[in-house]
Amino acid sequence: MTRILTGIQPSGGFHLGNYFGAMRPLIEMQDRGQVFAILVDLHALTSVRDPEALRDYTRRAAIDFLACGIDPTRSVFFRQSDVPEHAELMWVLSTVTPMGLLERCHAYKDKIARGHGATHALFAYPVLMASDILLYDADIVPVGKDQKQHLEVVRDIVIKINEAYGEVLKLPEPEIAEHVATIPGLDGQKMSKSYGNTIELFMEEKKLRKRVMSIVTDSTPLETPKDPDGSTIIELYRLVASPADVQRMVDDFRAGGIGYGEFKQRLFEAIRDYFAPFRERREELLRDPDSVDRILAEGAGQARDIATNTFGRVRRAVGLS
Ligand code: ADP
Ligand code: TRP
Fold first, then answer.
1. Could you list the active site residues?
2. Sequence-distant (≥ 6) Cβ neighbours of residue 179 within 8 angstroms
3. Same domain as 169, residue 21
4. What is the tens place of the pLDDT at every residue in 222-267?
5. Whose C-alpha in 127, 172, 192, 310 is 20 to 30 A from the C-alpha of 218?
6. pTM for this one?
7. CATH label of the domain that carries residue 14
8. Residue 211 and residue 296 in one domain
9. What is the DSSP string of 93-123?
């Protein structure tokens, strides 16, 4: 069966951009092959220095993914740090990774430019990604456009190691989500934690309404017709409402006589209703933390079986055993 693998950084709550841009596509891929969904807490450690926060983010990310539809009976869902081979293979890969390859990475340079301390782990981040992917002989790696360069680095690393030691590791195919639309945030820019313009998935209802009400709109008076093209309200509404309801909103925009406040109210209700079943499942998981731990432990067990096998292959190839 095709192996589809991706890493999820547990670095806080998820927002609509994460859901429609990454979570839902991954959940849908469970019908196409075997999904490996890794909570990459070792990666998160490059930016989260607070141990309680890291534990909490990882737990919450697990709960949110399960609530939204990652199915542990079909997929391998686990915590990266539960499988020590990730860090071990990374070391071996490091020995064939040219410095220049990592020095060119935009993500590293951007983070340093934004004031992030220049640590070795941040620099070596793509090598750990390579390890995530290669341990499971992944066929397809679905990622956002921002990860395209990292995936190229991963492919270069595979080529290097196979040149040095024969065909030890499998060359993965990236699947760059070019077609996935960028979800706009409250201010119309890309929704992103770093812009503070997000609508989180599981906010309390009152807060959610307040958030939706704070979407930036122009000052067209209530009675005047409004332009539906490029409206953040309509773009978000399309994600959560039926086509008929979207059409009704578009028509109402054009007709005039209705203010942005009412459109936002409709959007709020549609978001609330769309996520209601997930919210319910999430509440259940929150009440039963042991079940989450069990799911992650089982996932780690399955992952570990594969990882020890692959790493054994690498050990023999390079002369570590
Ligand atoms: P943030 O920008 O909030 O820090 P991340 O970079 O952690 O989000 O994104 C995690 C995943 O969610 C990535 O796969 C990314 O492509 C996707 N994603 C994030 N924001 C959006 C958005 N506004 N539209 C579409 N996809 C998004
Ligand atoms: N670096 C990816 C991100 O920030 C997360 C990630 C870690 C990943 N390991 C991976 C993605 C392996 C795909 C495959 O989004």
1. 111, 190, 193
2. none
3. yes
4. 999 999 999 999 999 999 999 999 999 999 999 999 999 999 999 9
5. 192
6. 0.94
7. 3.40.50.620
8. no
9. HHTT--HHHHHT-HHHHHHHHTT----HHHH
